[in-house]
Amino acid sequence: MKRALSREEGNDVGEYAITASGEATQGNYTVEYNPGKLTIKPISEEVVVKIRENSAEYTYDGTEKSVTGYTVTDISNALYTENDFTFSGTALVTGTDAGFYPMELTAEDFTNTSKNFSNVKFVIVDGGLTISPISEKVVVEITENSATETYDGTMKTVTGYTMTKTSNPLYKDSYFDFTGNAAASGIETGYYEMKLFASDFANKNPNFTNVEFTIVDGGLTINPISEEVVVTITENSAAEVYDGTPKSVTGYTVT
After folding, report:
1. pTM for this one?
2. DSSP helix/strand/coil, 142
3. 27: Cβ–Cβ under 8 A, 6 or more apart, which residues?
4. CB atoms < 10 A from the CB of 74, how many?
5. How far apart are CA 40 and CA 244, in angstroms?
6. Could you give the dihedral angle defined by the CA atoms of residues 162, 167, 173 and 174, in that order, rounded to the nearest 10 degrees?
7. Could you list the mean pLDDT of each consecutive 10-residue stretch along the chain, which spans 255 residues?
8. CB burial class (10 A; 0-12, 13-18, 19+) of residue 120?
């Protein structure tokens, strides 16, 4: 009669006891058993896990965009799986304006949880959110302000301009700089031009790369006084005593 040996089942790293079964006395001899154990050691060779941050590309439309998550692109040991580590970071990036927004994950965001591997290295491949500016031409119409006055001998002035039209409703009047002089002044009856130019305006918003400005003329008009003006002219007079010589009177007076 033989004495059988068996071990506790195990596949992961650890120590598993080996036990004997059956009688110690086997016929004319006695079996002396010294207990042993099965030891499974972790893999000490470096395991490299490559993590690529997810990426997305959009064109600016004034709304918030986002990209989430990451992808495991390579693991140097086939025994190691995504179930063998945990993630404690934030795999999310958001943005509204044109530009690149990195996700900025780090190796420290990932933690090996498998006791079967003692040397795990996480390598991050950068990704993130890209929002491209609008490249189609945006035409912005600028109208010079206008004013109409009636002549009264004093200086009259009109200033400023108005963005009256844009080919893209996302473009606002706060998205450009003005470096000209938006004013027209005069005293006498007539029309006074403001004389703005497209070059007086410059786009400053990075969400738009092709902006064209057009100018609609305005300015100052001073009209003449239309009410009737009555001017009374009195001819000058003189009274003389006859003395045989010519007498005369000249001129007039505005009374």
Report:
1. 0.71
2. strand
3. 1
4. 11
5. 157
6. -170
7. 48 66 63 67 92 98 98 97 97 98 98 96 98 98 98 97 98 97 98 97 98 98 93 90 89 89
8. buried
